[in-house]
Design a protein that fits this description.
Largest sheet: 7 strands, mixed
Structural class: alpha/beta
Number of domains: 2
Distance between the termini: 35 Å
Number of strands: 17
CATH topology of the largest domain: FAD/NAD(P)-binding domain
Length: 309
């Protein structure tokens, strides 16, 4: 089956919003359980800038786009439908949901899984966004091995930079923290010094790039700190508008609350991956999608019994 736009009000057991690792994993389990499934996906995953993904058993080093291509082919082989595009609204309809597509048309679903990921807010330093996922990096567990023992920097400007530097220290002894517009207190400076992490104060003007590679960080006063790779700690903004519009409960930090299977506070609605868990790596998100799918199918079985009675 190939990607195509559904006719108005096509009906499915489950509509999955988001076709990353979480959404595709859920669709695979559900379609193998003989459920009718549609996956709505815009085709721009969070890890799109990265050349490879790491830490996924048997898929370590695989390009993210390749994983998604294989996943799409797998779910389509079991009859699931991939719908290119985005969802503009979800409303309750006849005991289920009507999913309105931004490009026109709608889908009806008995159950809904939202796996729309999150957006990384990066420090507003020229070069950070352009090199992000290449040699301006976020996750040490994803990229630390590839830059081990190199000259590394942690760029501040977002919460948690000190802890990020302390974590990264185990991948390289040549590590500096540039707080940028942050203030590092005496206790944190002592913690960093104890681990051999130098602090270089002053606002950062730009990421220095030459020969299509990061060469360092230039400060506003003209100094350049030569580095081979830069790590940042983004602020995370979940793509959870659909969940909030449906009335899903959120926690004190503003994240949508789910149980161990991804069930939200709204009946019939599940969520998985970075939309509800900022720490989920690709392999974690895939596992969450699988767990959600099993719970979704159990919920549908109970509904099937109720309808039969």
């Amino acid at each position: 089956m190939t990607d195509n736009q559904p006719t108005t009000a096509s009906a499915y057991d489950v509509v999955v919003v988001g076709g990353g690792a979480a959404g595709l994993s859920a669709a695979l389990v559900l379609s193998r359980a003989r459920r009718s499934v549609a996956v709505v996906d815009a085709g721009h995953p969070r890890n799109e800038p990265a050349a490879h993904m790491q830490g996924f058993l048997s898929r370590d080093g695989m390009p993210p786009a390749e994983l998604l291509a294989v996943g799409r082919a797998e779910i389509q082989s079991y009859g699931a439908q991939v719908v290119p595009g985005t969802v503009s609204a979800v409303t309750a309809h006849d005991g289920g949901f009507e999913v309105t597509l931004s490009g026109g048309g709608s889908l009806r679903a008995r159950r809904l899984l939202v796996a729309t990921g999150l957006r990384d807010e990066l420090p507003a330093v020229p070069g950070v966004r352009e090199r992000f996922g290449r040699d301006v990096l976020h996750c040490p567990y994803c990229h630390g091995w590839e830059v081990r023992d190199q000259r590394l920097a942690v760029l501040g400007g977002t919460p948690g930079a000190v802890d990020h530097a302390l974590l990264l220290r185990q991948w390289s002894a040549d590590l500096v923290l540039l707080p940028h517009d942050d203030v590092v207190g005496d206790l944190d400076r002592a913690r960093l010094a104890a681990r051999g992490v130098e602090v270089v104060d002053g606002p950062v003007a730009r990421v220095v790039v030459a020969g299509d590679a990061v060469r360092g960080l230039e400060l506003a006063d003209g100094r350049t700190i030569e580095r081979d790779a830069v790590f940042v700690r983004p602020r995370f903004h979940p793509h959870d508008g659909l969940l909030r519009d449906l009335g899903c409960a959120v926690d004190e930090q503003g994240w949508v609350v789910v149980d161990g299977t991804g069930r939200t506070s709204v009946p019939g609605v599940w969520a998985a991956g970075n939309a509800v868990d900022p720490r989920a790596q690709v392999v974690t998100a895939a596992g969450q999608g699988s767990a959600a799918a099993i719970a979704l199918n159990a919920d549908l079985v109970a509904d099937d019994v109720d309808r039969a009675l």
